[in-house]
Queue: 2 jobs
Job 1
Amino acid sequence: MSEKMIALVTGANKGIGYEIAAGLGGLGYRVGVGARDETRRETAVGKLRAAGVDAFGVPLDVTDDRSVTEAAELVGRLAGRLDALVNNAGISGEMDPGWVQDPTVLDLEVLRRVVDTNVMGVVRVTNAMLPLLRRSASPRIVNVSSSVGSLTRQADPDIEIGPIMAAYAPSKSFLNAVTVQYARKFAGTDILINAACPGLVATDFTGFQGPRTPEQGAATAIRLATLPDGGPTGSFFEDAGVVPW
């Protein structure tokens, strides 16, 4: 079993996920780069290794049960356990101009795909990786969410929360709720689980619109993945602190 701390980051071939992997690697973690696309995954692994990170590729489609099971088996063979799981993979779903998803004309298939990736994918991966996490002395789980999933902020007319996104925003509210249920289940154990908002980051996910860099967007997730024992659990954080549910 590896003496290094072991992390797995889903959707880690680019953007925020890549920077989370790079940041954890810079802290001495051995990092599994979870991604569907083989070429992009191996390119990311090569780039991380060139920067001195102990990285390995993990073929992983979070919407596919078999892929997730095989990913857990691979991490088990290569590392023996898992100390940090960062569920970063996510999609926005098709949007109209201006990032709008109008609930009155929303294609239910779009909603299904978004929920399957952003919520069910997190459950698939988390449950598959739990046996490996339970082998760790200090297991940490981070679900990458978004402040647009905050019902408090969405419902406040005085807060500018962005356009109506009837598939993406509710999927993050759903993810936040699932995070709380896991925290309740893990109460009294060493497993800490929290949600992280990266803010509006300029990546291909946002059409490279946003004031924050991927490195800045990765910071909260890295902090939560490396919490000390006794740290918070079942909470939702951004750089400035706790995000209201």
Job 2
Amino acid sequence: MTVEVRPAVEFEDVRAVVGPKSPQANVCWCLSYRIPSALNRELRGPARGEYVAGLLRSGTPLGVLAHEDGEPAGWAAVAPRADTSFARNRKIPHVDDLPVWSLWCIRVRPGHRGKGISHALIEGAVAYARAQGAPAVEAYPLDNGDARVDLTMAYPGLRKNFERAGFTHAADTTSVLSGHPRVLMRLDLR
């Protein structure tokens, strides 16, 4: 197995990992933290994918994709926090005024899970943010301890995986997802 993580630039690869099975579906595309709530509610069906395609054409940093033996296998959303709703989120605090990047979604496709791809995605997202000049990367994973987490709701990642990647606890949050508190983890890149 060969896993390569690189910036998300190919629409078809992004669609394979975060696009819905039905083009008419009003889900995913990893837009909910990237765009204002009103626009997120307004974009329906194929318009969601078209919006992502436009972001890719504009060169907007969306994240990274993991490819296993050349096939799109996983996704990590990472972008400047200032360009996300985390810049205004009342449940997730700002530790300081550093222009950090946010890493908020990790998704591994069925058939590729259990192979360490989520770890590769975290490392790849950090490398991408570093290459773009990010002074630090923040994540907002679930602090689930040893409790099981529904895979659908595990998209922010798990605290232990970020700790393994060198992130440290920076702050508690008031955000709870699927019954688990989320914590603010940070990796300083300076």
